[in-house]
Amino acid sequence: MSDVRKKLVLVGNGMAGVRAIEHLLKLAPDAYEITIFGSEPHPNYNRIMLSSVLAGGVDMNDIIINDLEWYRSNGIRLYTGHTVTSIDTVNRKVRTDKGVEAGYDELILATGSNPFMLPLPGADKEGVIAFRDIKDTQIMQETAKTHRKALVIGGGLLGLEAARGLLHLGMEVSVVHINEYLMERQLDEAAAVMLQKELEAQGMKFLLKKQSEAILGKKRVKGLLFADGEVAETDLIVMAVGIKPNVELARGSGIQVNRGIIVNDYMETNIPGIYAVGECAEHRGIAYGLVAPLYEQGAVLAKRLGGAHTEGYAGSVTSTKLKVSGVDVFSAGQFIEQPGSRSLRYQDEIEGVYKKLVIQEDKLIGAVLFGDTSDGAPLFSLMKNGENIKGKEKELLLGISADALGSQKGNNRLEAMAEDEIICGCNGVSKGTIAEAIQSGGCTSVGDIKACTKASASCGGCKPMVEGLLQLYAGDKAVKVKEGICGCTTLGRDEIVAEIKRMKLMTVKEVMHVLDWNNEEGCTKCRPSLNYYLGMLWPEEYVDEKESRFTNERYHANIQKDGTYSVVPRIYGGITTPADLIKIAEVAVKFDVPMVKFTGGQRLDLLGVKKEDLPKMWEELDMPSGHAYGKTLRTVKTCVGSTFCRFGTQDAIGMGIRLEKAFERLNTPSKVKLAVSGCPRNCAEATIKDFGVVAIDGGWELHIGGNGGVHVRATDLLCVVKTDDEVLEWASAFLQYYRENAVWNERTSTWVERVGLESIKQALENREERLALKERIEATLALTTDPWKQIVNEPELRKNFNPITEPETV
């Protein structure tokens, strides 16, 4: 069969081209011998989720769409890190920059697009980048370690996502935008103003109506000059002002190009046997940049190459449903009023909800939704169908009903949606594709649909709609697969903890065996969680399983991207002494530490340490571990309080040190950060910490459930107390209650929202219960030891830090 297969070459290993290959493999799995060239040194990944990688919510492995095994199992020859530099259209060959040649019968160009870089004087300086690929993301992450200020040019979606990620990395971020308001291509002014307020609350700054004139600095960027003469200082400039189709390879090969590579309805170029798909293609004068149209193009091309009937690609009506730094927005159609149109608006600034419909000749022609985007898909269906909505306008604005969509009695929104409506925006999966997978493909669970179509396989935001379609089309045949803590079990956290208690299970292996794990070795999700639950339930009897912890926790230091580690000594409350500073400096010099940095939690971080040097460094420091690497108490941040500050009302330093000494080495479901502010001015940022203490006249406010990370959350007020001892009592009770009831790896911010503030207040309101929780946490803490000292003093443990050690298991 292989002798008669045609040779198919794909230039570009991105989302659009590989999606076309996926379709083709289903339609004609044995028709082609496939070769793929990709310029980046990675397999196919989800570019849409780069902002999540930058923000730290996921890593590179989480956004891989097709791993290397997928290419091997489908017989695809993949060349990563190869850029195709020439096409011989006569002899049908392509050649790469590394000298590899490949012949083709059919050639697909999916070269994507390049970021548009403003042609400003100084744009070639170090520290001026785009935000387009993994490399750009890594540059931003590295820059944030050594520099403080960043400017993002471009107030569109990409610019705001870059800004949010840089903010999370600890940089001061300002967004420069030439227009009067943000995201003018997706939002009207009212929605944009609401978005700006939300982002400003997260710490973002904005320079609107600013035209960039020149980039200042010698070798590295130092500032940005505007046309009005003002200068903004910066250490990094990220340009996110748009993209342009990558057509240079096509142009140099005699393929017809305009803005993009010109294609017909079957994605064919002017040269036989050569096709183009994705952001590089121009169809009927339009080059699309959204994922849904690109996937539609890929499906048409796959049918064409696979010999299946297709009507061709007729273009796409687009809508945009996005989550911008945690805020949901949706827009579609002509959402700015034009002559002859009228609009309806609903605005609730307390709840942060805005809706706008634009109507012309009794038809919906545009919509903007902010904060609540649940009506986006059905509104978009009305736009595409051109349905008359006379008399239903207010109902559509305030909440769409089944009747408003013309559905029969008993039908729901999903039923009324068009078949080509995109359900999974990350992977471009339509309602019709999911329906076919259920009705013809035999999918009876969300997991089946995910495996078959990739719907809900990325960010997971569309899972409720996938579940709804499963119920709609499968009915009683739908299998509600109970999801456990991981794929190894169907048991949830509470069931596992109850069974461990009931049968007094004492080891990770025993739990997995007795509770009938699917995978007898477990996985990187369940093993660490079981290790935590066992330690929490049996603090005196349970022996911590080192092999069930992550690398950072096994080596008691944070591993860095280059394989070195960072060391953060414990500095209680952020207060140190000249003697300790001298000691840290001397150790840094002795071990040739490449970087010493102050952390956001008022600690000193020694970065770039070799693993084999860790015990020797700890020994020289003779300081406790700061536990900057574990699911433990990290830091207690303080301001100077009444000790020095003229506004301070209480001793914030003393309280911070007391809390940190009380809870250091405490294992928790996820990392925990505390802060103490000496007055309501809140200089220690106590109201975005897991447990925050704010001094007031005559007492302390106690706050819980804050998070300053990827998902920013302000704290809830737990209570107000008068004495320092009461602060410690409530802190002990809260932390132990969290330890005993949260899911492993669940931050307090997520846990508080899940269980509700009132339930926590009720659990802690009885002093007898609080004291019992305090007693349990103190019993656990009494059993802990400083890991650095333990390793320094035990030769057997020090052996683990030799250059050759046991393989990593988690």
UniProtKB/TrEMBL annotation:
Residues annotated for siroheme binding in this entry: 683
Q: Report what the protein is called.
A: Nitrite reductase (NADH) large subunit
Q: Give the GO molecular function terms.
A: 2 iron, 2 sulfur cluster binding; 4 iron, 4 sulfur cluster binding; flavin adenine dinucleotide binding; heme binding; metal ion binding; NADP binding; nitrite reductase activity
Its UniProt pathway annotation is:
Nitrogen metabolism; nitrate reduction (assimilation)
Q: Where does [4Fe-4S] cluster bind?
A: 639, 645, 679, 683
Family annotation (CDD domains): NirB_Fer2_BFD-like_1, NirB_Fer2_BFD-like_2
User: Would I find Membrane among this entry's keywords?
Assistant: no
Ranges for domain BFD-like [2Fe-2S]-binding:
422-471, 485-534
Which superkingdom, per the lineage? Answer: Bacteria
Write the lineage as a comma-separated list: Bacteria, Bacillati, Bacillota, Bacilli, Bacillales
Q: Residue ranges of the NADH-rubredoxin oxidoreductase C-terminal domain?
A: 319-386
